[in-house]
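pasting for ref
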Amino acid sequence: MPIVKSNLRGALMALIAFAIYSTHDVFVKFLGGQYSAFQIVFFSVLFSFPLVAIMLIGDRNDGNLRPKHPWWSLTRTISTMITAVSAFYAFSVLPLAQTYAILFAAPLLITLLAIPILGEKVGVRRGLAIIVGLAGVMIVLRPTGAELGLGHLAALAAAVCSSLSSVIVRKIGQDERSVVLLLFPMIANFIVMGAAMPFFYKPMPIEHLGMIVIIAAFGFVASLFIISAYRSAEAVIVAPMQYSQMIWAAIYGFLIFNETPDRLTLVGAGVIMASGFYIVMRESRGKVSKNSPVLESRSRPETGMLPRISLLLRRENGGK
């Protein structure tokens, strides 16, 4: 009985977190219609630094910030920067439901990338789930139609790069200090996006700067709810809750942006979500997956701003 209650609490915490994330994305989409993704990412990182500093104040582990796996760390940092810009751009130009549908391919891509990077063994069933899920992505993208554009490619790039970042964390996370994995992508985002400001900057009124503060704050608060969810419930319960964002996409899209998901987007999203859910369930069986790459990748797929949830959980548990 306590386990059931704990799982229920974790599921509720996750649902709240993803509702907050979806509201966060509404502000991203609104600002993306007026400003470059580079500018939004730059100021989002700038306002996120104090929040992350609070997280790191309690780090009593000795050591320096020199990565033990510099090339993997560099690859992950670059992939995180691409994730942030690509996801923000996709939200600004695509309907919310379509963006989410493509980003939901992340569990499939994580499973696929875990084969060469982690040496993960993928059997026939999970292999078929990947194929079916990628077919769902093709339904959403409609590569033979005239609607395929840069926004679709950006969403796909965000899904791929976020998945790559997740798998790299699984590969080097036990060796690297959490503070290294936490800070490097944020610092790189700040420096690179700051260097791009002379080319993309547009003056922002105070209310729009306030919206970016809300983006940073909502991302931080949602992270806290996700951490609470994973402390309370099994990962197999929490992970599928990300798909609730499709409901919020339909609500916010209709009420705020006059968007209605078309039939192909809904069909493709359904196929992708079913495949992702199947992979999560298969990984929850200990003998099926050696690394559990999807269940251990606890941030939402498109997160490119704040530190990954798995790193925050590990740091709080005393890991370096």
